[in-house]
Structures are given as C-alpha cells and as structure tokens.
Specification:
Elements: H1 10-23, H2 30-43, H3 48-51, E1 52-54, H4 58-68, E2 72-74, H5 77-89, E3 95-97, H6 111-122, E4 127-130, H7 134-145, E5 153-156, H8 164-172, E6 178-181, H9 188-203
Parallel strand pairs: 2-3, 2-4, 4-5, 5-6
Antiparallel strand pairs: 1-6
Length: 204
C-alpha cells in the first residue's frame, strides 16, 4: 500500500522506508500507521506504535475538519510552527497558538491554560493540538464537560511528569474525537507530526 506523498521531502520518504523495514508486519491499518510512522520519524522512538490511541472515527473527523477549514488551536508556539508550512500547502486553516492569546495568566492559571480557555470561547468546534501543556488539556476537558459542543478533533499528547497522565486519562473519559498517547511520552514534535500526517491523509 502506497503511503508516499508529494508533500514529503525525499529524505523524509527515505526515512519512512527505513521505518517500514524495521517495523515489518503490523495491524494498525493504513491511516493509523501513516500517523504512527510520522511520529516515529519525528522521535526515532518505535514505542509509539503501541502508545497511540484513537477514538472511533477520530481520523475521519480530523480529516473532515481540515477539509472544512476549521481553525487549528495549538497549546504552544512550537506546535504551531511545526504545522504551519504544511497547513499553508494544503487547506490553509487558521492556526492559533493558545499561549499567544494570553500575555498574562489569569490568577491561579498558566498562560497556556488562560489562552486555551479564550480560544475555546471563540472556536469551540476547532481542532485542538496539545503537545506541551497538560494544564491546557485539563482546561479543555473542563470546558468540554460543561458543553454539548464537539470539537473537530483533540490531539492530546502533552509530555512530562506533572499532571500529564491525569490530563490524558481525563481526555480518555470524554466522548469526543481524540488521538492521544498513553503515559508520559509525547511532546510538541509528536503533536505536530500527528496533525501533519492528517493533512497528508486528507490530500490523498
């Protein structure tokens, strides 16, 4: 099955070929493997084959949202920068970094958390890409628990030790389209890779 794309640099395609050889047989299916492979490319960590979790219809919902031009809300600027080029080459969705929406944090909150809540108030149906800040993911989950609005997709892959697994477990309990990484692993490159993989899939 051909997973190549003219959106990928030739060196990326060479890397993908190496990954394919090392992975060998798998049961992820075409779309899930395309996402996992791009994450492995970004991290050189093959454990992601077994750490990624997809809710039913998550990939389909994300692709549909991209094609409809839904805004993409990232938690931090690094994730935004990691997806902007491919977004511009494909569907040109608006890309907003939550942390850039809050120059000062609200009392008792982080800047990213504050900005995320402001983004939710403006773009509740957006695609949310959280790769760094578990506080932002928890804030998003809190907004969702009090709302009937369903976002296009949540990519919940913050990394670290404080509140990270708690945030992912909270997301897992919500009936919303989601892609997440189990445990402590994740990060901005992982978040950007998942979104970029969806962009490529949406063009195929």
């Amino acid at each position: 099955m051909n997973l190549t794309s003219n959106l990928n640099h030739p060196i990326v395609e060479q890397s993908f070929a190496i990954i394919d050889r090392e992975v060998g047989e798998h049961d992820l299916g075409f779309q899930k493997y395309a996402i996992a492979r791009r994450v492995i490319h970004a991290t050189a960590d093959f454990e992601y084959l077994n750490l990624l979790r997809f809710s039913p219809q998550a990939i389909e919902s994300g692709i549909a949202g991209l094609k409809k031009g839904l805004p993409i809300v990232t938690d931090v600027t690094m994730v935004k920068q990691g997806i902007c080029n491919l977004v511009a080459k494909t569907f040109n969705n608006p890309v907003i970094a939550a942390i850039e929406q809050a120059s000062i944090a609200d009392p008792g909150k982080t800047r990213t958390e504050t900005g995320l809540i402001r983004c939710w108030e403006q773009y509740p149906q957006a695609i949310y890409v959280i790769g760094n800040a578990p506080t932002a993911l928890l804030a998003l989950c809190q907004q969702l628990s009090n709302s009937t609005t369903i976002p296009g997709l949540i990519i919940g892959v913050p990394v670290g030790f404080v509140s990270v697994t708690e945030a992912k477990q909270t997301l897992a309990k919500l009936n919303v389209p989601q892609i997440r990484v189990e445990g402590r692993k994740g990060g901005s490159p992982v978040a950007a890779s998942i979104l970029n993989a969806l962009l490529v899939l949406a063009t195929q």
